[in-house]
Specification:
The protein is mostly helical. Helix content is 76%, strand content 1%. It is built from 12 helices and 2 strands. α3 packs across α7 and α9 runs antiparallel to α12. 23% of the residues are buried.
Length: 329
């Protein structure tokens, strides 16, 4: 009897050792893959960041002598950045542009993903059609938009025919709507990004909770609102965060179309830093602006990681409750 119990205990312990061995192998594999990438990333970025930090504390422009002889000015350049109203407006424009683009991309991308996530004939065609804008080079979009959005261009002509009025909207030269124009172009360009993420999330949802809700007589709306949407919260948050971070650094469409104009109406952070560094040749001020922007983005990323972890814990709790109830039964 004792031998039988010992054999059973050994058999029970075997899966535990196997799980530990598997997790250890996965950890070693991740280390083998990630370690070279992290080393390469740090080896490439560290010299640049250190040089940028040097310029942030030393006043130098290309009109002065050698950069290693620049005068040390401590935090004076950062003080200039924080007291510069033009930089403050650039931050606000970037937030407005990124926020509008993120919401627009997510809403349209989610709707498109929800329409086609169930298999049907011709699904591949619509999938290819919906991701086509993301494959278009942003600078090409800018030059095409210049022709389409001209005062006498095709868009105003179509709107005039539809409304029966002679519309001549100044999409590019009116500072009141210029930021909205580039935001709409960015939404068209990057909606496929949110579409792909949400399509993957919808396709990977577990079928059991959905089928259980349908058996209990829940309507399609209640299934979506009370079952699918809570399960999609981590995916939704990931799509919003990634799109927002990318939109904060948007440059090609805005620069190719308006170069921050008319006036400073579309001068976002990326545009202003570029103008400061490469048109005004004030390298030190541009470096300090870049560091301030980087700190802002790091704070946003850390907040996003915290939110993602919280959503993961809530989902784990949600899955653990039914499991615990089943074991108790």
């Amino acid at each position: 009897m004792t031998e039988v119990l010992a054999g059973a205990a050994s058999a029970d312990a075997t899966p535990g050792r196997r799980d530990v061995s598997r997790s250890s192998a996965v950890r070693r594999f991740k280390l083998m893959i990630l370690a070279p990438l992290v080393i390469m990333l740090f080896s490439l970025l560290t010299p640049v960041l250190l040089l940028q930090l040097y310029f942030s504390f030393h006043q130098w422009t290309v009109y002065l002598s050698s950069w290693w002889n620049a005068d040390f000015v401590a935090f004076d350049i950062f003080e200039t950045v924080f007291t510069d109203p033009r930089f403050g407006w650039a931050v606000l424009r970037s937030l407005a542009f990124a926020g509008g683009s993120t919401i627009g991309c997510f809403v349209i991308g989610f709707l498109l993903a929800y329409l086609i996530y169930r298999p049907f004939r011709g699904q591949a065609f619509y999938y290819a059609l919906f991701i086509l804008p993301m494959l278009t080079v942003p600078i090409v979009i800018s030059y095409t938009a210049q022709m389409l959005l001209d005062r006498n261009g095709p868009l105003n002509d179509i709107l005039s025919r539809l409304t029966g009025q002679d519309l001549r909207v100044l999409w590019l030269s009116n500072p009141d709507i210029a930021l909205l124009t580039v935001t709409l172009l960015d939404i068209w360009n990057w909606t496929p990004f949110s579409f792909i993420i949400m399509l993957a999330g919808l396709s990977s949802l577990p079928k059991d909770p959905i089928e259980a809700a349908q058996i209990l007589g829940a309507s399609s709306w209640r299934v979506f609102w009370e079952v699918q949407l809570p399960l999609l919260r981590p995916v939704i948050l990931l799509a919003l965060v990634l799109r927002f971070l990318d939109a904060m650094g948007a440059f090609p469409i805005i620069w190719g179309l308006l170069q921050g104009g008319p006036g400073t109406a579309t001068e976002t952070l990326g545009i202003y830093i570029y103008i400061t560094t490469w048109q005004y040749f004030n390298v030190s001020l541009g470096a300090a602006q870049s560091y301030v922007t980087m700190v802002m983005m790091v704070v946003i990323v850390l907040a996003a990681i915290r939110l993602l972890r919280r959503e993961k814990r809530s989902l784990d709790t949600m899955y653990a409750k039914p499991h615990g109830a089943g074991e108790a039964a």
